[in-house]
Amino acid sequence: MEKIVVVTGANSGIGLALCDRLLSEDGRLRLCLACRNMKRAEAARTALLACHGDARVDLLHLDVGSARSVLSAAEELKARYRRMDFLYLNAGIMPNPTVDIRAFFKGLFSRNVVNMFATAEGLLTQQDQLNSDGLQEVFATNLFGHFLLIRELEPLLCQPGHTSRLVWTSSSNARRSAFSIQDIQHRRGKEPYSSSKYASDMLSMALNKHKNQQGLFSSVICPGLVMTNLTYGILPSFFWTLIMPIMWLVGCSALYLFTSNFNLKPRLTTSPSRHTDPDFHQHFHAYAVQRSRGTGLYPAGVFRVHTSLRPGLRRGVNTNSCSGLSQHWLFLQKPESLDPRAKYQSLTSGLGTNYTEPRRVSNVCPRQILL
Ligand SMILES: NC(=O)C1=CN([C@@H]2O[C@H](COP(=O)(O)OP(=O)(O)OC[C@H]3O[C@@H](n4cnc5c(N)ncnc54)[C@H](OP(=O)(O)O)[C@@H]3O)[C@@H](O)[C@H]2O)C=CC1
Ligand SMILES: CC(C)CCC[C@@H](C)[C@H]1CC[C@H]2C3=C(CC[C@]12C)[C@@]1(C)CCC(=O)C[C@@H]1CC3
User: Fold this and answer.
1) Phi and psi at residue 231, in whole multiples of 5°?
2) What residues form the membrane-spanning segments (predicted)?
3) Neighbours of 327 (CB within 10 A)
4) How far is the CA of 57 from the centre of ligand 2 (A)?
5) Does residue 48 contact residue 42 with C-beta atoms inside 8 Å?
6) pLDDT for 62-81, tens place per residue?
7) Which of 304, 34, 3, 345 is nearest to 174 (CA)?
8) Quick one: pLDDT at residue 366?
9) Looking at 81, 88, 193, 287, which residue is catalytic?
10) Which of 70, 140, 318, 337 is the most exposed place for a label (fewest CB within 10 A)?
11) What pLDDT digit, counting tens, does each position of 243-261 carry?
12) pTM for this structure?
């Protein structure tokens, strides 16, 4: 039976890489790219079809940051499909990020250095704003929109005798201390991204508690640090190139030998693109770097860069880092074998092997959320 898979935020970065990986895995897949920008979605579809000629790739307009758009997208999905096997809740934003340079240098010489690089704790703040629904944009996009979508899609996701899966793209930046039940949308704080990712971890657990018996299973993944439009929004690409040696040093530090929660998989583009369409370039170069060579997904003139810095002593060319996506790993697992309270992390071993490992979600979850 063909699997029906929907990916939100599929037109770039991790979402697009996931789509490519899933199509390589299962040729009979019916994949739906749910994106807010149809021009970019169309370009992503064209790129995917150039690699997977006979794939079935549908497009759907979905702005997860708008309740209205979510409701109409859910109606459209219910009209198109009779069930849904996988729903990847991947779309996410980190608006106006600021790096605290002083905290960075202070952290660099502290015992917390590995944790700082792995989780960005104390380093990053964002400036949020209200969206047209009157909600904080970060929570609306990273959490509420996806939750509304799940609720609206229950007829497709909770079918008797069939299991369906939800997979949230969370983050190592998710932190309980950034979340407050008194300020659910993080209106008053400066770390809405961290807070929203923690809330999605909690929501996933709550969904497992309430929906497993109806055949719906939810998992949370953490992709590590991946060079995408989101990370290029934090620092420009040349800056990333500059700080790579620091990251490499941290990765090689002795601490890494004793802590296994450090995972940096930066991929960066160093060469300029000769492609003429800036939109195309912006949304494809981050993905193109992850492809091995000369496939149809390379826009002409975009040079692949393949610097893969791994903690654990190896610096080398990583031709298809996406094979380490934990979203893809989860696709291959039976839901009953998964831990409903775990966060599945993409990790790279000292020898350069990509693997996925479950970790307990940060701290114990607040009872209020799970009830
Ligand atoms: N890169 C990293 O190191 C990490 C990323 N993540 C998470 O991974 C996910 C993917 O991000 P990443 O690939 O890095 O970054 P990208 O910016 O490349 O991808 C984000 C995707 O989400 C889409 N999106 C944003 N807002 C909306 C919206 N309102 N409605 C629909 N789609 C939307 C974007 O579409 P558009 O092109 O229109 O903006 C884009 O396709 C995010 O949830 C992010 O938080 C987690 C940990 C680390
Ligand atoms: C010289 C300095 C300005 C260098 C600062 C380095 C930081 C920019 C990065 C160190 C750890 C990174 C990190 C992320 C962003 C960039 C760092 C803060 C994420 C928050 C990106 C998105 C995620 O979901 C998790 C990442 C954790 C690590």
Assistant:
1) -75, -30
2) 215-232, 238-258
3) 27
4) 33
5) no
6) 999 999 999 999 999 999 99
7) 345
8) 47
9) 193
10) 337
11) 878 777 766 653 444 444 4
12) 0.87
Contact 260, 347 (CB under 8 A): yes
Hey, whose CA ends up nearest to atom 35 of ligand 1?
9
Ligand 1 atom closest to residue 66's alpha carbon, by position in its atom list: 29
Alpha-carbon distance 212 to 38, whole Å?
A: 34
- pLDDT score at 226: 87
* Nearest ligand, CA 226: 1
CB 307 within 8 A of CB 268: yes
Lowest mean pLDDT among 63-77, 146-160, 297-311: 297-311
Number of domains in the chain: 1
- Whether 287 sits among the annotated catalytic residues: the reply is no
Of 225, 240, 249, the residue with max ligand 2 atoms within 8 A of its CB, to mutate for a pocket test, comes to 225
DSSP bridge partners of 6:
32, 87
Which CATH number covers residue 140? 3.40.50.720
Residues with CB under 6 A from ligand 1: 8-9, 11-15, 35-37, 40, 62-65, 90-93, 141, 169, 171, 223, 225-226, 228-231, 283
- Expressed as residue numbers, the domain containing 321 is 4-370
Which secondary-structure segment (H or E) carries 109? Answer: none
Residue 260 CA, ligand 1 centroid: distance in Å: 26
The CB of 225 under 6 Å from ligand 2? The reply is yes
Residue 5: other Cβ atoms inside 10 A: 24
